[in-house]
Amino acid sequence: MAFLVEFIKHPRTIGAVAPSGKSLSLKMMEPIDFLSANVIVEYGPGPGSFTKELVGRRQEGTTLILIDQNKNFCEQLEKRFGEEQDVYVIHGSAEDVNRYLKEYGFDHADFIISGLPFTSLPKSVSSNILEATKKALGEKGQFSTFQYSLVKKSFFEEHFEITDILHEKKNLPPAHILVMRNKRD
Ligand SMILES: C[S@@+](CC[C@H](N)C(=O)[O-])C[C@H]1O[C@@H](n2cnc3c(N)ncnc32)[C@H](O)[C@@H]1O
User: Fold this and answer.
1) Are 182 and 160 in contact (CB under 8 A)?
2) How remote is the CA of residue 52 from the centroid of ligand 1, in Å?
3) pLDDT of 19 higher than 90
4) Which residues sit with their C-beta closer than 6 Å to ligand 1?
5) What's the CATH code of the domain at 147?
């Protein structure tokens, strides 16, 4: 209910009427190499469906940076995960990911996982986020985002190389997960 209220207040930035379910949350974990990840960033965690899985799977010492621009969701995240070691909740925009990484002592992220509603965000905001993400990934980082349709695939391809597309049919609606990295020459 709290999620629906936030959607009614901010339809473009919330972009969905309910949080992602368990099957999609589990599928989102598949591309992540938890053994080697030193720092993982999550964009738009909302109340924390993916965060719960990230926290449960990460190695001891792996830093998790959660960035959401919704104050109520940040408060919920603080309550759920604020006691966890090396988990940082940031009330801010994914556009500023590089500043946040620097604040916590990192040059780049090993993995960035996104729950952002790219289809409803203003195009300029999406472009800013993808440009910032390119820088944040450096040479080796990976970026994944879920989409309910592949209409935006070419938009992501303008910025990244898509290395894999996973499908989660059990989710309502069924979802696609784009796995990306920076283009190589
Ligand atoms: C559809 S909800 C996803 C929540 C959760 N990841 C899930 O799948 O259930 C989108 C989230 O993105 C957040 N958001 C939208 N624009 C953002 C931005 N520029 N920076 C960070 N978070 C943003 C919203 O506040 C919201 O929590």
Assistant:
1) yes
2) 15
3) no
4) 13-16, 19-20, 43-46, 49-50, 67-70, 73, 93-95, 115-117, 121, 125
5) 3.40.50.150
Task: Give the sign of the dihedral formed by CA 66, CA 95, CA 108, CA 130.
Answer: positive
The pLDDT assigned to 145 comes to: 97
How many folded domains does the chain comprise?
1
CA distance 185 to 135: 16
Average pLDDT value over all residues in the chain: 94
Q: Is residue 63 part of a domain?
A: yes
In a domain, 10, yes or no: no
- Residues 80, 83, 84, 87: what is their CA dihedral angle, to the nearest 10 degrees? 80
Cβ atoms of 126 and 114 closer than 8 Å: no
What is the length of the chain? 185
Centre of ligand 1 to C-alpha 185, Å, is 32
Category of 86 on φ-ψ map: left (φ > 0), alpha (ψ -120 to 50) or beta? left
Residue 17 has pLDDT above 80, yes or no: no
Domain of 130 in residue numbering reads as 18-182
- In what order do the strands lie in the sheet containing 111-114? 87-91, 63-68, 39-43, 111-114, 142-147, 175-182, 160-168
